[in-house]
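seq as requested:
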Amino acid sequence: SPAERSAPAFVFNGDFVDRGDHQLEVIGLLLALKVLLPEKVWLVRGNHEDRNMNQKYGFADECTERLGSEFGPKVFDLVHKSFDCLPLGCLIADK
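struct tokens:
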């Protein structure tokens, strides 16, 4: 089982969005994995987990285009609230 203590842990080092056609699916999957396995999945904030970057490079537009003018901006805002909680770095094996 992935939740077992001996199961591997995974670190995802930022830039989850603004990277292609499946950015909504990618961030949705990563956030779902974090909820499902909070002690095994670690999300680290990169330079694209920034509101200004996402408005410039297309994530804001992608949310609106794919989710509509009412729901898209709400999702964009909620995703950014989660980005604001991400750490800027992590230690692996005390390094």
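The radius of gyration is 14 Å.
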